[in-house]
Amino acid sequence: MTVDVAVAGNGVLGLSTALELVRRSPKLRVVVVGPANRPGSATVAAGAMLNCFAEVTDSVGHHPASLAKFALARAALDAWPDWLEGLRDGEAGSGPALVAPGTFVVLGARATPTATRSFDAVLAALKEHAEPHHEVAAADIPGLRPVPHERPVRALYLEREGAVDARAVLDALAIAGRRSGITFLDGRADRLLSANGKVTGVRLADGSELSAGAVVVAAGAASQSLLDQLDPGRVPPLLHGTGGAVQTVRHTSPGFDRVIRTPTRSGACGMHLVPLGDGVEYIGATNIVLFDPPPGPRIGVTQFLLRFATDQFDTRLGMSAIQRWHYGSRPVPLDRFPLLGRAGPEGLYLATGTYRDGFHGSPVIAGHLADMILHPGATPRILAPFAPVRAPIETMTVEASIDLFESDAVETATEYGLRLPYFLDSEPVAAQTRDEARHTLERLARPIALQPEILAAVRDASPAHIDHLNTYLEAALPLPG
Ligand SMILES: Cc1cc2nc3c(=O)[nH]c(=O)nc-3n(C[C@H](O)[C@H](O)[C@H](O)COP(=O)(O)OP(=O)(O)OC[C@H]3O[C@@H](n4cnc5c(N)ncnc54)[C@H](O)[C@@H]3O)c2cc1C
Question: Is Transmembrane helix found in the keyword set (predicted)?
Fold first, then answer.
């Protein structure tokens, strides 16, 4: 089979990019390859909050790449209403809609210092950009009934930030894609085909081959196996941000009608509850970054998630029935910034590495990538900082990353229930994690600053993964002379 563009991966980024290509160029032959049941897909597991300002942390202004990511999220916030309208099925007269048209961000009485700084940063960003919001009293949040010692001390309502049903959006993208002439193949891309330094197609796991003028790798965290074919040292390695969530249905109370969430912490997205309608609620999400994902979410962190949702949001959640579990791998580059655009050899593009907010960013990313593929040579300014072929983007010094790892560990231990007598402070925990961080960084061929959850993944990585990582670092960061 010969096509103009082959997209390897059928998550939100693969489908959206394919759709934007045929919308711009209706005669283009586009094929999307991906397993129909989407194992490991982040999109299928996502709470699909369309959050931009609610995701802000106090480090957003510290580095141009962080600011660029925020700019992309703001563009996506503006884009979603039209994007959903464009996914309406003209024949059936229906389409995916916002399941919750607003978001409460709550700061609990026992919030960590990092969460408190994030909350302040959210409020400052809302004011700076004149984004519609208001501060609310906890008593005015419908459905909120935490245990007394977890009552929010501050809360914000963000008018334009809500959520959609990720599974419904995927279905709508597939319907719109089929109507627009996209071909869908149920299978896996096994290898990139290339000739004379140019990528010429993909080989599928069943041995068949697709010739293509351009190939887009959008296989989420699984993209790494295809990227391993490139010269080492070009693209930051991808890790799995394993995430679990639980979908429940109410029995005794109507539940929430808006997204409710906590602010973002360094190593974790905020805890959130997304109402999906008819008393169905999505409670998410855990995040453990690993090189090798286990087959399901860990019990320990899931227990923590459920306890905190009932304690901080609504004790009556304890009476809800579990409908299903969600589990998937967020695609997490070593430096946590997305991998978007040309990936080295001519004809190869990446649409991955979006970590925690790729669902929200997908309409904007897809549109710009489609432009890039149709007009090779020009890189849209908004995507330029995320060009995949790069040395790791470091937003702090190595020493600062050790400090952050330490404070993050102490805060997490405290959240999990660590309580020390008045005559001891947390220094023993801090000292141990500082040592861990230093020993972990000694495993690396180059000293680089890593975010806490990535550092933890490197600490736990097998020697084979460390070798792979070091091959990248040695090539990406050659020693002077
Ligand atoms: C629990 C959880 C909650 C989240 N919540 C949010 C949120 O609220 N808001 C937000 O914006 N983002 C959220 N995210 C992040 C978001 O889901 C991701 O950033 C985004 O969905 C990534 O989309 P993707 O298409 O790149 O990857 P994926 O959805 O992982 O899609 C990749 C697809 O490629 C397929 N595939 C794998 N290997 C191959 C191969 N060799 N060939 C072909 N296909 C292959 C996979 O089966 C999969 O279907 C969340 C993620 C998780 C896990």
Answer: no
What are the two backbone dihedrals, phi and then psi, of residue 296, each rounded to the nearest 5 degrees? -160, 175
- Tokens found for residue 149: 């010692």
pLDDT tens per residue across span 162-218: 999 999 999 999 999 999 999 999 999 999 999 999 999 999 999 999 999 999 999
CA angle 115, 119, 120 (to 5 degrees): 120
User: What is the phi/psi pair of residue 301, to 5°?
Assistant: -75, -30
Q: State in Å: Cα 136 to ligand 1 middle.
A: 33
Q: Check: CB of residue 205 under 8 Å from CB of residue 8.
A: no
Residue 481 pLDDT > 80:
no
354 C-beta closer than 6 A to ligand 1:
yes
pLDDT in tens, 38-54: 999 999 999 999 999 99
Atom of ligand 1 nearest to the CA of 286: 1
pLDDT for res 266? 62
- Other Cβ atoms within 10 Å of 49 Cβ, number: 28
**201 & 321 share domain:** no
Residue 47 in contact with ligand 1 by CB distance below 6 A? yes
The predicted structure's pLDDT at residue 188? 98
Q: Is the CB of 357 under 6 A from ligand 1?
A: yes
CA of 12 relative to ligand 1 center, distance in Å? 7
| Same structural domain, 326 and 360 | no
Separation CA 107–CA 105 (nearest Å): 7
Domain check: are 273 and 322 in the same one? yes
CA 73 distance to own-chain centroid: 12
**Does residue 9 have its Cβ closer than 6 Å to ligand 1?**
yes
Question: CA-CA distance, 189 to 50, in Å (whole number)?
Answer: 30
What pLDDT score does 267 carry? Answer: 63
Give residue 478's pLDDT band: very low, low, confident or very high (50, 70, 90): very high
82-128: pLDDT as tens digits: 999 999 877 766 788 888 889 999 999 999 999 999 999 999 999 99
| Cα 360 to averaged position of ligand 1 atoms, centre (Å) | 12
**Binding site membership of 293 for ligand 1 (Cβ less than 6 Å):** no
Ligand 1 pocket member 19 (CB < 6 A) = no
| Atom of ligand 1 at shortest range from CA of 41 | 30
**Ligand 1 atom 48: residue of nearest CA:** 41
Q: Which pLDDT belongs to residue 189? A: 98
Task: Find out whether the beta carbon of 187 lies less than 6 Å from any atom of ligand 1.
Answer: no
Can you give the residue range of the structural domain that contains 342? Answer: 2-46+167-238+335-386
